[in-house]
Amino acid sequence: MKTILVPVGSSKNAQSHLQYAVDFAKAFGAKVYVVQIYNVYTKAGTMIKIDHILEAESKSFLESHIASIDTKGVNVVARTFKGKLINTIEKVCKALDVDLIILEPRTNSIKDEVYLGKTSGKIIKQTQIPALIVPEGYSFQPFEKLLLALKSATIKKENVLYPLKSIKTQFNAAVTLLLVKTPHHKKHDFDVNEELQSIISTTKKADSPTTFMAFLEHHKENNPDLLCVVRRKRGFFKKLWENNTILKKDFHSTKIPVLVLSGLK
C-alpha cells in the first residue's frame, strides 16, 4: 500500500483522525494526500467568482491542520480540488493512484447519534474505492484479528483483495472468513478460490437474514479489531442504499475500524 487519501472536513475529530491516518501510513511506508474538495461559487448579485479565495483558504487550513499533528517522517501532502464530491474524488484517486481512502465517519460536526455522515456515506455508497472507516478518537494500533464477512465468495475483479492482503501481511494478522447463507443464497456462493483461501486462517458459516445480522451474532465470539466487508448494492450497509446517513443505533458496532472493499464481481 503506497498511497493513502484523507478527505478533511470540519469535525472535532479531524485532528485525531489525520494522526491515525499518518500512523497507519507509516507502518506501510505510504504517502498521504490530505485533501479538501470545494465547489465553484459566484458571489451573490455579481459575476465575480470566488473559487480562488476558497482554494487559498482551503490550502491554508490544510497546511495548519497538518502542522498540528506529528507526521513522524511520513510524506504528507496538502491538496485542494474544486468540483462535485464524488466525481472529483474518483478523478483524484485515479490520478494519484490511491490505494485506500481513510475516512472518519462524520467529516462535519453533526449529531452524535450519527455513525456515517452524508459525505462519508456518499463516498462509501457511490464509489468503488477501497476505504477504511476509523471510529472517532481511535488511536492506531497494529491489527491482530480480522473478520471478513461475505454472503458470496465469488470473485471476478482483479486485485480486489489487495487492501486486505496488504494489512494481513503487514501485521501478520489472522483472518476469519464468515460466510453468511442468506435467503438469496446461490449454489456456488461459498466456493472460495485459491487467492482468498491463501489469506484465510479460519472459516465459519452462518445462516442469517443478512450479512450484517450475522456479523452482530459473531462479533463477540471473534472479537476482531478490524471488520472487512465488500460493497454490494443490497449488502452489509443495506440502509446506506436508502440514505447516505447511517445512525449509530442502526450499526451497533462503532468501536472498531471497518475496511470496505470494492465489489468482488
Main features:
single chain, 265 residues, alpha/beta, Rossmann fold, 2 domains, ten-stranded mixed beta sheet, two-stranded antiparallel sheet, 8 helices
Overview of this structure, please?
There is one protein chain. With 265 residues, this protein is an alpha/beta fold. The protein folds into 2 domains: 131 residues, 3-Layer(aba) Sandwich (Rossmann fold); 114 residues, HUPs (Rossmann fold). It is 31% helix and 23% strand. It contains 8 helices and 12 strands. The longest helix is centred in the N-terminal third of the chain and has 17 residues. It is globular. About 9% of the residues have low confidence.
Task: Summarize the structure in short.
This protein is α/β, with parallel strands linked by helices.
